[in-house]
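User: I'm curious whether this sequence folds into something compact or stays loose and floppy. Could you predict its structure so I can see for myself?
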Amino acid sequence: MGYRGSLSFRWTRRDYLTVGIIIVTVAFLSGTTLILFAAGAHTSSTSDRYTNSIQTTKYDSLAAARSNASSTDIVLPLAVTSTDGPSRYVVGVPRDAPTTLKGASVSWQKARIPPPPKKNGIKGPVSTPTQQRFHGQSETVETVVTPYTENDSIFPRSWYVSDTATVRALGVTDALVIENTSGSKQSIEGGMPEVTSPGLFAFFTTGIQGMLQLFLYAIAGGGLLILVIIYNITRMSVRDRLQSIRVIRATGGEPRQLLLLFGFRAGLLTAIGTIVGYILGVGLTRGATIVATALGVPVTLKPTLTLAVLRIHGPMVVFLVIVGTLGGVAAVWPATRTSPTQLGVTKTGGSSSKKQASQESASKVRTFLTPTLLQWRAFVPATATLTIFVTIVILLGSLAGVLAPLASTSSGTISEPGVSHPMASRIDANYTTALRDKGVTASPEIIVSQVRGDQPYLARGANYTAFAAVSDATLTKGRTPQTKHEAVIGEDLARTLDVQVGEQLLIGGTTSPAITSVTIVGTFRAPGLSDDQLIVPLATAHDLSTKPGVVHFIRTDKANINLSRFADSRPSAGNDIIVSGISVPEIVMRGEPFSVIVTVRNLAETEKTREFTAEFGSRSRNRSVTLAGGETRQIEVNLTATTTGPVPLKIGSQTRTIRVYEEPPLAEPSIPATVPPGAKPAVLIRTEADTPVSNARVEIGGVTARTNQQGIAVLQMPSQAGNYSLTVQAGSRTNTTQVRVAPGAPRRVTATVETTPTNMSVVAEPEVETTVYNPWNRRLTRSIAIETPARTVHETVTLSPHSETTITQDVATNTSSERLTPGNYTVKVRSNDRTLARDTFMVYSTDQLLSQLAETTDYSRGTGIGNAVQSLFGNLKFVMGTIVFFAGLATIGGTVATFAQAVHARREALGVYRATGATRGRLLRLLLVDACRISAPAIVGAFLISWCVLHGLVLLDQLVVFGVRVSLSFQPLFVLGIGVSALLLSCLGAGIASYPYLTTVPAKMRGRRNDSPKTESDSS
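Assistant: Here's the prediction. I'll summarize afterward.
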């Protein structure tokens, strides 16, 4: 083998060690990237239904909006006006504007821009047309305000809508530009940074991009670490081969050849280490999730190599190989610039005696600090290596400090059981009242994720006073919100968004296409992530997220609320599993099996097992269930009815009555009780299970008809007045109803009414859904009165032949101070003083509400946002722990390389010590003490460099992730812990680097390696 092959491919144990060190360093980088992408994929999977969105930008003037809008954008002028109450927005909608932005619509809400009235006027939040006066900046306009005719709108219901001419007359104060992005984010220049709605997908994608931008700094640090490693190892290789290099140079070898050879050698070492390290990092990351799951750690991440991951990993591998090659070139560079006669010459001259004299005259402190075997040349590479470790740990520790208050067990969160994350939870806000009546401080809250420009952040719908009581928040400037168009902002978020008190913010819906505007009226300070949030009133959050009366969760100031003591279905002593609910069919057929869905909950924090019995009539069935602490599960119990009639079912404390038939019985036909002669009403035939009956025979007065697939038969009434029997026959089932035929009988509509929920608290406002049906073959207009215990609502409906309409109303009291007392209530639908339909509901007391709370919700320690972060990122502790683990491995690799070079430089001294009787243990102690002497100031330097780097990132606003401004933590105990950890890693690296020299025969450590190259003639 010639000298080219010898220098390129003849590797020593040290070279293999180099490859190993590069492997662990690259494993850190690849594993960390995969973890971050897995977290991003996990969060994005929560929001991938909301990729389509609209972007809205606010401008100070209509001219600025028009000049910056494209031809496809929608420009909406705004006017801030005052009526008899607070100021309101009037939106000017062009008459040619699309009414629906289909790309941004979701299944439950259309992205609808309400059209202006067809004639002059304004649409607004009124129930009947009213004359109102609007005071604008330019003039006062008096006009008719008509009710909204559409349920869906991207604007709050409290905003008014008119044409652009009316808004210009009032005086334009602002303007909106709406862009339907349909999944592709574009930017509109100028104006207030845009808001994206629905914003959930954009929130996660922009947040992950911020995290990956931070990771680029880690890649740069990893490149620096590999540069240090390769430089140190190549320096040792050059020192070993100085005699060879001298011969090569003396026999005509050019410096360029040496640079290429050692660059190739270093690049080859780096390439092999990088590829193996990449594979190891991916494997360890995926293996860590498997091990964590086996150990019971709740990990939902699925690290997978995707195209997005490879787009980061590919350039990273190329970058690191290039850095390693440059490190090899830099290490051999001095040897190519030195005269061949000076290469390999060892300088002598009594250095040992001078050192000895110096030591004798030095002070004890200086003697203690001076290394015995190693040299201070290891200080700089050790500092570089430890800086990477210190920076990563401080950054993660600071992030953990921000999130620490979220995981505090001094408070708790009540949410819906069985949901994947708190933002998917839906619970009744009225539970808050019951908790407060029991002395528990509670705050019902809604999370509304936002994206303003390219900056994601969190808004929270809450009453600020309740929020502050459970968050330890303090108002530092301004005042609390007094209307739904006002908000307060955390001091850190105000710095991130660069907003001040008095400024306005556009905010959008999380999963619904909706926008609104709020004015910042105050700032607050709170621990951790709470200081990086915008707090808007619950009414504002309801416009953007959940419907009124529903929140994501309720936070409490107590961590140990035992809800089971409130449950009517609480288990017996020693058993914490309850049956919180059962779902059964109202009607079943005899002999046919049916399923009962049983919801069971474990109120304990540890795993429990319970056997329960399902008693159905005279038969029973036992089931056993094992639940983890706090787990809620639905299980299926299969039963079969053997007798007909009403049969009781009991499971735990839950009881129901199921009606058993041979076949579904026919319900009473839907037809008015009195009809005019010769009329042809449509008769609706259904079973008592509310399913239509097709091909049923309907007969009255000798006239028959058959029902269609919808269960409707058009039947002509008798021409003579009198009482008749209307008979329905479907197979063996029959049903007979009396119908009176009378001249002049009015053509009445029919109706059904349903109240939800049927059981509610004393402060609840249930909804009443009334369906009015026109059974006649002519157009009808009727006045409908919906009577509730609190009020009567009058509606006028116009129905086409054989059509229906649905009216939804709240059972609301006249004033907020009134409440329905516990008891049973009836809702009636009347027309012309005749009752068309009725329904009942029950209002239960506070104690009953607490029982419902205990049986239908989950309680966990910590905050709602904290639980959301944990669930949305899989498991934050696992993510951060894995990154620290990889960082520790990389640091060990760097310190091994550093001290391997330092020990190699003193191998002759080690050989002398070994030859004169020094034991391996004594030499190891001396080396470890020297490593501590060098590492201690290196750690101090690492902290100083890390402080400068991180504070530079803070000044550049680079340490903001998901809108959270990371506050750097340099607490004494935290710094001490990092310092001790770094020192231990340095000692471990020094020990590993020393092992080959402690196990080698002393004679082999004396003198330089004889590695004279073979010339071409030698080879032949």
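Summary: Residues 3-42+205-343+363-400+872-1005 form one domain. The chain has 22 helices and 46 strands.
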